[in-house]
Amino acid sequence: MYKKVILIIAALLCVIVLGIVGYISILLLGDYVIDDKKFVMNSATTLVDENGAEITKLYVENREIVPIKKIPKHVQEAFVAVEDRRFYDHHGIDVKSISRALYRDVLSGGKAEGGSTLTQQLAKNVFLTNDKTIMRKVKEVVIAINLEKRYTKKQILEMYLNQIYFGHGAYGIQAASKLYFNKDVSELSTEQGALLAALPKAPSQYSPILHPEKSLERRNVVLDLMGKIHDLTPEQVVRMQGKTLSLDVQQEAKKKDYLTYIDMVMEEARTKYHLSSEELLRGGYTITVPMNKDIQSAAYELFQDPAYFSGTDDGVQGAFVMMDEKTGGIRSVMGGRDYVQKGLNRVKIKRQPGSTIKPLAVYGPALQEKKYRPYSLLLDKYTSINGYSPHNVDGQYDGKVSMYDAIRESKNIPAVWTLNKIGISTGKEYLNKLDMPIDDNGLSIALGGLSDGFTPLQMVAAYRTLAHNGERIEPHFIDEIKDRSGEVIAKPSLKETKVFSKQTAWNMTRMLEGVVRDGTASGGTFDGALAGKTGSTSYTNVKGATKDAWFVGYTPDLVGAMWMGYDKTDQDHYLTKGSSYPTRLFKKILTNSKVETAAKFKKPKGVKDLAEPIRVKEIDDLSSEVTFSAFGLFTNELTWTPAEDKRVTYYIYEKKDGKKAKRIGEVTGKGRYEVKNVHVLNPPSYYVVPYNKQTKQKAKKSNVVQTSI
């Protein structure tokens, strides 16, 4: 008997010692099995506009981490009631529940299942697989006990609620709250919290979207459990079980119109701020972007309309960029008509710019170097210039033409002639200042005939110098990046580089307004102030075919570029129309997105305004009438129909005695001139010559009239 007692005591001591050793071993193993880095959960990066309104999310797992203090107590209680009612009493494992589960495992053949505490579920989800084995269960227990040792109950519950999956792509309670109820987790009611607590066991089976009846039954079970552990009174349980699911589902749709913009944001985050795409999808950043959703949506919708894309088939492509004139923030971007994520982004592909280069490489430098003025006369006749023989597209040559009209009508000869006069090296120097270096060295630069060309992004940045006092700014897609804690970790440099003077930029703006008003960019309709330039390049293998078509322009607030063409132009694939199509589409996007139309271009201080061009017309109705006045003198009154422009000057010429005609006077803005003391016995003849003071250019002389009584 004595020996039996000794054996029992010895056995008990062994069990106690083994238990103590086992527990100590579990604690010691904690440092090896728990890797705190695994608690850094994937969370969605949110793109917001400048007002803080959400645009879209980027994620591997749609999760928004929230602190426990933001989760209402009644929501916490719902999860504890259904998942682990003794959560606040145990130290990681519930001995009673796990014993019952192990007993069932033995009967069922050794598969570990059931009996898991909330802490064990966290341990399994974060550190382990879903394998149902005894070894996995042992590891789960070891980790759970050590989690309880290392973290408080509130911390464990916070990690659990942020980690679990709620179905339909929602990870964590905040994403679930926004998905199912369109509200912040802090606003959840008790019955809504109970519905969310009902989902983790089987998100698909109990989905309130797919299976509302099963979901309602499961929610009511959770409410009943909350009543049993006295979180709710019996009356509260009954009242809440009688309520509907009250869903306000906000499933995120894939916004195809944002795809190019999102890709550009991710690229900028990688190249400028060294955040990989993987980090953006997992890091929970908040990225403020300068997108204008109205312009972006209008551009996307109009890009789908084939009426704006004229080619030999439906394969005509396009690229579009719109930038804020002041900040350089990109308001809208389209990489193609059928752009797919990570696909061919035509905004970054270089194309020959055609005549859109003229203000940048020719006329802007000519003004800046003070070699010419807006109304200086330029050569406009078919000729060879240093061995290069360009021609005007319309085949019309005026002999001489003002810079204003050369730009307005997009004449080629004057551009080439001017570049030759200022020097190719000068034109290239200004392209370098615009961050548009080229290797080309011929006069074809003046017409955009380049070996590579420029991207729409480059063109937008360059034309911004004309829109904004001659200063260039680097375009950007990211205004600000904040990390999970709300700390700003990245902002763009808004450094500006001086390229042209304010006077040069203003003169170019005035001339480019003329291009839109009654020049090559007059097609289409936009009611606001707009300046810009068209451009196109020919596909020489087919007569009349166009390879690239452009419009680059700006309002007082926005700068944009539109390109059209084929990804590869050949004899079967080319544009059948020129720059009028991108011009009309550009204006339509501005109109449909309700861009401000009241604002006008504002002349900078200290800058001289550029007057509208003086328009003269030929005179063919000059007439003469002689009248007799006092003292026996005769007066010859000459009359003609004057031009509408009152700034036109008229030179009056008299010819008599067979001698060379002599200028005897001038009037401005009138169609009448009196010649006094006319000798009627030897009557002279007269004619009038209109004169443009801007260009210092005379028009053809009028018809000749003879004095007669």
UniProtKB/TrEMBL annotation:
InterPro entries attached to this UniProt entry: Beta-lactam/transpept-like, Glyco_trans_51, Glycosyltr_51/Transpeptidase, Lysozyme-like_dom_sf, PBP_transglycosylase, PCN-bd_Tpept
A GO term from the CC aspect: outer membrane-bounded periplasmic space
Reactions that this protein is recorded to catalyse: Preferential cleavage: (Ac)2-L-Lys-D-Ala-|-D-Ala. Also transpeptidation of peptidyl-alanyl moieties that are N-acyl substituents of D-alanine; [GlcNAc-(1->4)-Mur2Ac(oyl-L-Ala-gamma-D-Glu-L-Lys-D-Ala-D-Ala)](n)-di-trans,octa-cis-undecaprenyl diphosphate + beta-D-GlcNAc-(1->4)-Mur2Ac(oyl-L-Ala-gamma-D-Glu-L-Lys-D-Ala-D-Ala)-di-trans,octa-cis-undecaprenyl diphosphate = [GlcNAc-(1->4)-Mur2Ac(oyl-L-Ala-gamma-D-Glu-L-Lys-D-Ala-D-Ala)](n+1)-di-trans,octa-cis-undecaprenyl diphosphate + di-trans,octa-cis-undecaprenyl diphosphate + H(+)
Entry keyword set: Carboxypeptidase, Cell membrane, Cell shape, Cell wall biogenesis/degradation, Glycosyltransferase, Hydrolase, Membrane, Multifunctional enzyme, Peptidoglycan synthesis, Protease, Transferase, Transmembrane, Transmembrane helix
Coiled coil: none
Family (UniProt): In the N-terminal section; belongs to the glycosyltransferase 51 family. In the C-terminal section; belongs to the transpeptidase family.
Protein known as: Penicillin-binding protein
GO MF term list: penicillin binding; peptidoglycan glycosyltransferase activity; serine-type D-Ala-D-Ala carboxypeptidase activity
Segments forming domain Glycosyl transferase family: 52-226
